[in-house]
Design brief:
There is one protein chain. With about 350 residues, the chain is an alpha/beta fold. Helices cover about 45% and strands about 20% of the residues. The chain has 14 helices and nine strands. Strands 1, 2, 3, 4, 5, 6, 7, 8 and 9 form a nine-stranded mixed β-sheet that branches. Helix 1 runs parallel beside helix 3, helix 3 packs antiparallel against helix 12 and helix 6 crosses helix 14. The longest helix has about 35 residues. The chain starts with a helix and ends with a helix.
Length: about 350
């Protein structure tokens, strides 16, 4: 889309200008906050003498209309532009694998160098702290989410992941997968409306605890199987963001027709790099890659936010019935979620991190 291309080029031009101005240096072992640029480094004439560095970056999403695609493409454009072509990037939109666990395995073996993945993959790697991002109603909006993830809390998570995985995974940016809403065979405006409904969602952990506290019945259905399950009355409802449910046409099924804006989960995705690969780079290459990661992060978020509105409009045009956020009894939906947040944080020694997020409002 023209707007997205203009944004990508604007980011590239701005970051090129910033790098040429020689912004203040930072310790490259720490994550940059959004909006800052690291020093270009001191590897004089490195770009003229070093061999071409080949990077493969990947997500599990196959649609080129998905925001991940635009983020990956922006990374490619910026990295190749800044490096004068000494970095060459191959982007994979789900053609390597649609399975995040498999992408992580390929990242571990350095067959791919960067991937987009959900935080749960870090939990599987022994970083239980990231499970906090599964807590529902943790953020009050995208502004709150950005402030937390680009600030104290996000920086703390980056450091914890590096430490607990022995430098195996380096967070290069926090991406958004939108905000998740309920959709099902009946409209809901209050927690009691979901009682007795089966809902495709996580079947363990804090998400399971939340929906069962409302009287719903979480069930396990594969993402690729969900259209048929909704269409054939095998599951009553599901929850996801407008763009993903629209791209899979879930709203066109009998049990996906009613979309109700619970806005219960402002979701986070991790743009991560193989830590050993990062450490093998020159200072100049690190700077180029970090700058490209920042541009990719800004672009992915921008497209995510833009597509929320257009995806909602398309769902309505194709027959979905939407209950807007303002018509929902959000305080009633939030109350059990806040109790679960407090209980989870106290039980797992994460109270300080929960307060970081709450302070970011």
């Amino acid at each position: 889309m023209k707007v997205r291309k203009i944004l990508a080029l604007t980011i590239i031009v701005g970051l090129l200008a910033s790098s040429l101005c020689g912004c203040g240096g930072q310790n490259t072992s720490k994550r940059r906050t959004i909006g800052s640029i690291t020093d270009a480094g001191s590897d004089s004439n490195a770009s003229a003498t070093q061999p071409v560095l080949q990077l493969t970056i990947a997500s599990n999403q196959t649609s080129q209309d998905n925001p991940y695609h635009f983020g990956l493409q922006t990374f490619k454009e910026v990295a190749e532009e800044l490096s004068g072509g000494t970095i060459q990037v191959t982007c994979s939109d789900g053609d390597i694998s649609e399975d995040e666990a498999e992408l992580i395995s390929l990242l571990d073996s350095n067959e791919v160098q960067m991937v987009v993945c959900s935080p749960g993959n870090m939990s599987s790697a022994g970083v239980s702290e990231v499970n906090m991002l599964s807590l529902l109603y943790l953020f009050n909006g995208f502004s709150h989410w950005e402030t937390a993830m680009d600030g104290e809390f996000g920086s703390a998570m980056t450091d914890i992941i590096l430490e607990k995985t022995n430098n195996q995974y380096r967070i290069m940016g926090y991406w958004s997968a939108g905000v998740r809403d309920y959709y099902g065979k009946i409209p809901v405006t209050a927690p009691e409306d979901v009682q007795g409904l089966t809902i495709r969602t996580q079947t363990s952990g804090v998400v399971f605890d939340y929906w069962t506290s409302l009287g719903a019945q979480p069930v396990n259905v594969g993402w690729g199987d969900l259209y048929d399950a909704l269409n054939n009355n095998e599951v009553d409802s599901a929850e996801n963001d407008y763009t993903n449910l629209m791209l899979k046409e879930h709203h066109t099924t009998p049990n996906g027709k009613y979309i109700c804006e619970t806005h219960h989960d402002y979701t986070t995705r991790l743009f991560i790099m193989n830590g050993d690969f990062y450490d093998s780079l020159t200072t100049e290459q690190k700077n180029w890659i970090e700058t490209a990661s920042l541009a990719a992060t800004l672009q992915e978020r921008s497209v995510t936010y833009e597509m929320m509105d257009s995806s909602k409009e398309q769902c309505i045009a194709e027959g979905a019935v939407v209950t807007d956020y303002e018509k929902m009894n959000i305080s009633a939906f939030k109350t059990p979620a806040i109790a679960i947040q407090d209980s989870y944080a106290d039980a797992n020694g994460l109270r300080d991190y929960l307060e970081m997020i709450r302070r970011a409002q």
